[in-house]
Fold these 4 entries.
Entry 1:
Amino acid sequence: MDSVIDTLKSTLAIYEDERFFFIAVCSTLLSIVSFLAFALPWTWVAYKNPESLKKYRIQGRDFPVKRWLVPSLQRFALNNLVSFLGVVLSWPLVRHSGIHTGPLPAWYVIVAQIACFIVLDDFLYYWMHRTLHTPWLYKHVHSVHHRITTPFALTGNYMHVVEFMLTSTLVMTGPALLGAHVVTMWLWIVFRQLEAADGHSGYDVPWNPALLVPFYKGPVYHDFHHRRFFGNYAGFFAYLDKLFGGTYSKGYEDYRRAQPPVAAPVPEPQPQPSQSQQ
């Protein structure tokens, strides 16, 4: 009996590590808050459907905000709860990942690591997403996300709990492999939630700050995936579809080619001399 109690005490003791609070609790809360901060404003825009932004809508169909708002919030809450419990149960393993709370690295190290996380996550997500489109996994898992054919920002996390857990695992993979500082991981989580909300916003606005990220093509890329159900499997960068078998969604390349180039500034008209001046 004493040995059982000692084993229980030693197991519980590992949860007293401050990293458990920062990695499990704080990261979950940050993920929730950051996604809602990015998604709710765009969801409000989709609901109001202002006339001034209709020219930037990717699809001509109305956003189904009224139908999917509550189910999206319910899925979001359930998925985050299960994900948090998953981190709690796997903490004896996760705590060996190398994610630390030591001295904060230089800013350029943080930037370089986040860049690595983006590339790695996108590569892994491409293959995970493509695998989820195989018949059995699509029917039993991924079809939940594809119930929404005209996405709005809040639907970025509307998915089966298994898919949510897999996606969350990929997000943690980069920080775990590189032994990142917890603050670096937090910045990466915020960026990843920006990606999730932006990719489902339904608006292709030219002043989208996410377009400052090199090689990012905006929400049009993932919107075509929801519309066509095939292709455009990466999360952020479109080059992977060209690299691995030309898996672009039907019509996506035509859409990109049809976009007008940025117009050159029109020169001011020069005043013409009047008849009396000639």
Note: Residues 261-278 have pLDDT under 50 and may be disordered.
Entry 2:
Amino acid sequence: MLERITYHFEDNKRRYGSPKITKLLQKEGYSVSERTVGKYMQELDLRSCVAKRFRVKTTDSNHDLPIHPNLLNQNFKTAEPNQVWVTDITYSTPS
């Protein structure tokens, strides 16, 4: 079983932890618990490397820079063209 745990761990680029490896072993017909797989992984010194999810950070409110006043206050009506300009920034997360 230790060989199969090591195989699945390496085969999945060292990213799978005990929950996923347990499911793979159960599909192969082994009767094993997640805790047991975790203990075996600890014995073999196998730790999964999980990267944090990418998160877009759009605003940093914790700064000492001056904050500009809201001159429009949601009033976008003007008497002449080119007096008020508005924009929108849309972020998408990588898939």
Note: Residues 2-43 form one domain.
Entry 3:
Amino acid sequence: MPASPAAVATPTAASLRARAETLLPQFRAELAELVAIDSGSTSPDGVDRMGDWCARRLAELGFDVARLPTPVVDGQRFGDVVVARLRGTGARRILLFGHMDTVFADGTAALRPYREEDGRAYGPGVSDDKGGFLAGVHAAQLILESGFTGFRELVIALTPDEEVGSPASGRILAGLAAGADAALCLECARENGDLVHARKGVADVRIHVRGRAAHAGVEPDRGRSAAVEAAHLVLFAHSLTGARPGLTVNVGTVRAGERANVVPAFAELFGEVRAATPADLDWALSAIEARAAAPAVDDVTSTVERLAVCPPLEPASSTALLSTAVAVGAELGLAVSAAATGGVSDANFVAAAGVPVLDGLGPIGGDDHAESEWLDLRSVPERVALLAGLVLRIAAG
């Protein structure tokens, strides 16, 4: 039978850090194992090998572990969601979450194997997010080794498709978050050590433009160029950047026509809108739709599709948790601060479920998605201790 909270002294921040220091060699060895597994988002077998490792490790710690299959999305199969649960004796339910997938193709782990140099670890996914969720596993280990059970439930959720916008796991994660008292995202800290207290929302947009084809040499006047209209739309969309604080619009791909001697009858644009608030996100999307409905080229029509929409993580969702993290950091001699970023994470979906959330609680890392991606191994003990201490504070209310 687990000891009651009254029977077990809450470990100090210093003791958590000391234990995390002794576990650093194990962390490094496990990180090397994880980086050696190719786990690109669209490689479900590789992601599930990651899931096998995580499920086994968490079960060894005493968690009840389940594998939740994800739906096929637009013909693409994704890996399972790994969910580990541990019941305690307290009142608060706490969710830790990270992701097992990377942006790298199969074979990358063999081409760029794990290595260490000057206190840093290198390899595909070492920071985003293998080092991050591994820190969550080690924080859980510190808590359980201490005998502390003062939470109602400690849940660790690891998803398979965050790098492509969580199309298969987003709803599952939001469901797991529902009813949680707090959620802590295991993405790694910024390069300067900042946590993340705000993230922009993002909406993907596709615009279809229809004109009329004609021979470009014989009778161009009979044509209605979808390409010209598309050019106007690109310029308009980009002109919205900065119209609201933090608002950015980017048209990433443009395709029109098939031959140089034909006035193009079709064009397609694909882009994204990022904004700090839901209102600004909707304002920009509505502006694009209104402009598409009023073409600059006669007899050309455009339709706008709002594709995936990810809501922003607003600072208000993180305020109380950030204050608690600052207090725990002070006990560790660590100055904790937080930043806003334009990048999206699964924290956006969790915040949209109405759950207080704080992001960037993994070790310090950088150059995500690049060949030079790195993790600062020297930051691991203090960040694991910070995460464990934060869980203890939340559980204590």
Note: The two ends are 24 Å apart (CA to CA).
Entry 4:
Amino acid sequence: MENDGSLVSVTEIRKDELILIIAQFILAFGVMVFLHELGHFLAGKLFKVEIEEFGIGLPPRMIKLFTWGGTLFSLNWLPFGAFVKPKGEFENDASSGGFKSAKPWQQLLIFVSGPLMNLLTAFVIYIVCFLQIGYPDQTTVLIDRVEPSSPAESAGLRIGDQITKIGGQKVDAFSVVTDYVDRNLDKEITIEVNRNGVLMELSLTPDSSHAEDRGPMGIVITYPMEDYTIGEGIIIAASETMTMIRQYITGIGQLITGKVQMGIESIVGPVGMFSFYQDAAKMDEQIEVEQEQRKAERMEEGTTSQRRTASEAASPWLNRLSFFAIISIALGVTNLFPIPALDGGRILFLIPELIFRKKLPEKFEYYFNSIGMICLLILMAVIMFKDIFMLSNG
């Protein structure tokens, strides 16, 4: 049999899609770290701390981009991350314009601003998601799918029909439909639907011997989605952000107290995170496919709907945006933990100065951060090794 090249074409498309997803992941993750450092940068500028360099990516340096406001902006070779280098941050120098010349509470705000920028990023992502999707109107029931060769198809029900009455009962919830059908299996019932503003009454007989993957009528019902106002979107996004923060902190607390057992095999690095991102991208792709199918079905049936269903309201980027909202929250909260080399570790050394007006010995801080950094680097190496091993073994 002659090879027409179709298999090669499919393989190439898959490779192209994988490369695109990898590029999306690296870019989006880099943006999150960039925003974290931007928070530090803006707070430093606010308190008149000289920022010597703002690096996009991590060293070694690739090129110097430009100098603005006394700050060198550089592009570095490692694409994950960014960094801000305030003047005299690691020196015992309180000269004007240096980091140590800032008051302790100002230094505290500079450290906190990075994590807060990550939490703000998650908040903005949730606003976009909720304004895009809206909320379900649970008093209105729409037909989301009609199975082929089903009682519903034979009766003439179509996708987008609003069920207004069933057996003479007003329909204002899912349960009205499902309870009535369950009580009248194998009996003829009447259904009133609103199709494009026209009320129609149809008859059908729910089948008690239906297949397990379909209901007695052969339909899938859903609620239409209503739009949030901007104010409502902000409130619900703030609530969701706080909920995710609480859940993350609770999970860490359960891990520390031993309520949840978690070994190194459960900790993921960049490769593991990319695997989750790839799953999110696949779910988004499925949303897009289903939306195209739904559009084709509506065109084939000649029906339109003034109301969006949940599947139609979902954005093809919804799962990827939600993924990065969660990662932003994890990045922001984790950086506040009192761990050496993280913002929380730096804040820990400011507490005595804030409360007692007395600094801890410089050597103590130096050794504390050095030992902590070594431990973090070892942990990162182990995680990277595990990631590479996982990748090589599929």
Note: The chain has a mean pLDDT of 84.
